[in-house]
Structure formats: structure tokens, C-alpha cells
Design goal:
There is one protein chain. By secondary structure, the protein is α/β, with parallel strands linked by helices. It has 2 domains: about 210 residues, Vaccinia Virus protein VP39 (Rossmann fold, 3-Layer(aba) Sandwich); about 80 residues, Putative methyltransferase TM0872, insert domain (DNA polymerase, domain 1). It contains 15 helices and 7 strands. It has a 7-stranded mixed β-sheet with strand order 3-2-1-4-5-7-6, with helices on both faces. Helix 5 runs parallel beside helix 13, helix 8 packs across helix 12 and helix 13 packs parallel to helix 14. The longest helix is centred in the C-terminal third of the chain and has 17 residues. It is globular. Bound molecules: S-adenosylmethionine. The site of S-adenosylmethionine (SAM) has 22 residues, from helix 3 and strand 2.
Amino acid sequence: MAGNNEAEAGMAAGGEGVQTFHQPVLLAEILALFERIRKERALVMDCTLGAGGHAQAILSMYSSVTYIGIDADPEARKRAAERLSPYSSRLEVLGGYFDEVLSDYAVDLARAKPDFIFFDLGLSIHQLQGSRRGFSFAVDEALDMRFSPDTEVSAYDLVNTMREEELANLIYKYGEEKLSRRIARAICEARQRAPIRTSAALASIVSGAVPSAYRHSRIHPATRTFQALRISVNDELGREERALAKAVELLAPGGILAVISFHSLEDRVAKLLCREYGRNRGFEDIYNPPLVPGDEECSRNPASRSAKLRALRAPTQGIGDPSTGGMP
Ligand SMILES: C[S@@+](CC[C@H](N)C(=O)[O-])C[C@H]1O[C@@H](n2cnc3c(N)ncnc32)[C@H](O)[C@@H]1O
């Protein structure tokens, strides 16, 4: 989950203790999509294993499926591997950022082509609630926001070292925050007094920088700033773009690529890919407009509210050649 729903999930994390385990978003829709594969021994590549919610549903329902789960976060991999231990003979867990893992996978000729490649972008409730990495303004933790400890630059580094103008541009570009200049100015003023070390300190600086009407809107005033920093720290949009381009190449004939996104910037990347491959490369653009959760799911799991599912199906004869109008 990501984007505005972080506010809601973060609030739950902040004290009400409403949600304790990550609930897989659009699960029924993902299972229905997977049904279309109709292949006994399908290979699934789950690029955002997270808490293993989608993985558990697929592995428990389909006893011949082989599953590869990727996550950059070692704590997520550990949690998922424990939860999925009954299926360990059919499960391989790979560590690293998905764009890099998919590139390595593509050059390994011994590897089979996946029938179903799946992205459930953003972060899980476990990262928001208690990862000690400051993803949420509702929990006071060290400002870090790295999915992987191997990532060099953290949110602390960005907030405490970037030039004011660059910081404003970052908050505007990745947070779509109209008040980015004010917020960047307040951050730079505050850090002259002392480094900004925690998520709560940053949230309070952002709240203090915006007009009071903004402070009383439905989402917390720091939501967009936190989103922007997290996207930048983990290069989320660049990785999504590279990984989706690799995923369509990797798909087995007739295979399906599914992407759940949680904010407009993420969705745009998936939308452009679906449009290009649907119109010019012989793929089926399965959902246009994208599928969104129903009222029941939104009220049961507020974090799902901004989710959008897009999916592409590869031609059965292999990837189409754009010069032949997408015919294989
Ligand atoms: C929304 S959660 C997935 C939840 C999962 N589908 C479930 O049902 O439990 C997203 C996960 O993707 C991981 N992730 C996000 N971006 C990533 C990237 N570029 N490479 C690898 N993992 C990533 C996060 O660490 C997080 O654990």
C-alpha cells in the first residue's frame, strides 16, 4: 500500500491497533486473473512478496504451482518464509530490488519463463507499523525509509543534506505536493537548529509549515512529503518502469502480468505500459479502465481504497513485433 491510504493505515498503527497483519489487496480479483492461466504447473513470480498474503492464497489453492517471491526487505522475506513454510518445496524466495532480480533472472537461461508475474506495489502494514524505519508519520521512529539496508541514501540523508530547491522539487515531483516550497523551507530552517532525526520530528515540521485549513483536511499534512521521500529513497518509479519492461519480456506465451498500484504516479507507469503493449505489441490489455476494490473491501481494509489493478496478457505465440503491428 502507498499514497493517501498510508495516512489511514498509519493512524491505525499510531495507537488504535486496528490492523495487525497485512491484508492482501484485491485478492479475489488476483485469484480470478490467475484462473485465466489454466495451466496445471504454472510458475508464479511475485515481485513484492511482502507478508506473503497473495502467495499463501495461491499456494494453498493450487498444489502444482511453483512460486518465486521477491522482496527487497529482509524482514519481509523472513516473515513471508515463515508463514509460507508449509509450501517451502514449491517456493523460492529471492532478495533484492525487483528490477535487479528480474534482470538477473532474464539472463539465466536455465530459468523457466513465468506464467504469472505480479506486483503489489508500495509497502506493507508491517513496514508502516513497526519496522523502526520511519515510513509513517504516525509512529515515532528513526528517519530511514529504505526497503533494503543495502540502499545507500536514507530519508535522513535527503532531509538533512539536500539543497532547499532540490528538496522542494523532490516533494513536488514525487508527492504532488502543492506546498512543496514552504515545506522545504521549513525543513531547511529546522535542520539549521538540529538534524531532523525522526519521523515524528519531520511530521511536526511539515504540519507547522502549512496553513491550518490544510492541517484539518482528511489526510495528514505530511502524507505527501513522506510519500515523496520514500519514492526517492527507494527509486520506486524508476524501478517500477525497468521491472515492468523486463517482466513483459520474461512472460511465457499466454502469461499474465498484473500490477496493483496505490497512487497516480505508480499507476501512470503501469498504464503507459499496458497502453503500448495492448495497442502495438499484440498483448491483451485486460482492464481498461483499471479494476478497483469494491465498497466491501474498502470498508474492511481502508488501505485498499486507492488501489488500481492493471493487467496484460502476452500473445500465445510469443511477444509480438511492433513492426508487424504486434503480430508475432
Ligand atoms: C504491499 S507489500 C506486498 C504485500 C503482499 N502482496 C501480501 O499480500 O502480503 C509490498 C512489498 O514490496 C516490497 N517492495 C516494494 N518495492 C520493491 C522493489 N522495488 N523491489 C523489491 N521489493 C519491493 C516491499 O518491501 C513490501 O514488502
